[in-house]
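Study this chain:
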Amino acid sequence: MKTVEERFLELIQYDTQADENSKSYPSTESQPKYAQVLAGMCREIGLEDVEVDKYGYVTATLPANTDCDIVIGFLAHMDTSPDAPGSPMNARVVKAYDGGDIVLNDRVILSPKEFAHINNYRGQDLIVTDGNTLLGADDKAGIAEILAAMEFLLANPNILHGKIRIAFTPDEEIGRGVDYFDVKNFGADFAYTIDGGEIGELEYENFNAASVVFNILGKSVHPGTAKGVMINAALVASEIIESMPKDETPATTEGYEGFYHLSGITGEVGHAQVGYILRDHDAQKLKNRIEFSEEVVAKINQKYGNIVQIEVKEQYRNMREVLENHMYIIDRAKEAFIKAGIKPNIKAIRGGTDGARLSYMGLPCPNIFTGGHNAHGPYEYIPIQSMEAAVKVIVNICTKG
């Protein structure tokens, strides 16, 4: 058997970044290739019904070895964030972290002065980057942990469990992870995404989410004769940004506080575009944020004429509305945590997971920790002991009475 550390270090050697500008599915060629690698790993450890469908979803089965009508699923996503380079991957293990700075390279230092949570792992073994790429623990740690748990159960047939289904999905990082996922064919009664952060996290509520794009059509004329005629779309874009609340951004909010996040801006005199993502745990508050954005457009259009169009897209909803009716799934996870010696840390996700959408597709699906920290950038790290704990939790969920 491979350790979860060995499996993770192998998995992160593949660059599987998603591309939000791509029109294909999966969004990058590397992901379906990676899906075949994962399918091979599933077959290698002895899982059955291993499939890769035309959309790149990997599914497999661990058959039941006892009478049990419940089918449990576990999911993780194979893509990594496009927010930072994904290769070349030069990870290393910091053995028995003793506190203080970890020098990743001559420009990037992982320091407890910035990331105080690293002090929680003194004496543990941390996997870190070389400061040039993200690590990919989000969510290749989840894949490694699921595979390690399945391999453990296969190697210990005396441990009784029902039928287990697993799936690895593409494009979660760009919000398309389960666009074509066949819940009926997956066949689980409920499932868990292994896609959380620090050890102990158990999450069954998340943001309601929408994206807003402001498309601005300017009026471009020669600047020498522009008085009273030119409408500079780039300057109008800056007016829109200035109109948004300054104290409701990701950098100024926490917990259950929602935000407006400027996700991108492009512009010139003739045309500009401003993108925002809107987030709030409360559905009505998210609706209010959308309406505020529309009011900003109305004021700009009143000033300049109808030069701005707004595109609003709902992305995902708070899974709590579904899971409140299935709290036995949360209770099962809590018991698995406690059995593994881990105190459940129930918190709301300041983001979303595939599980949020799956819950509304008929597959109730809360989220469980992987152990990773500082996702989407070169400061990402994961304690090996946290990954080992996640494996124990997965096994415990499978083998509850």
About this structure: Residues 283-304 form the longest helix (22 residues). Residues 81 and 173 are 6 Å apart (CA to CA). The two ends are 26 Å apart (CA to CA). The first strand starts at residue 48 and ends at 52.
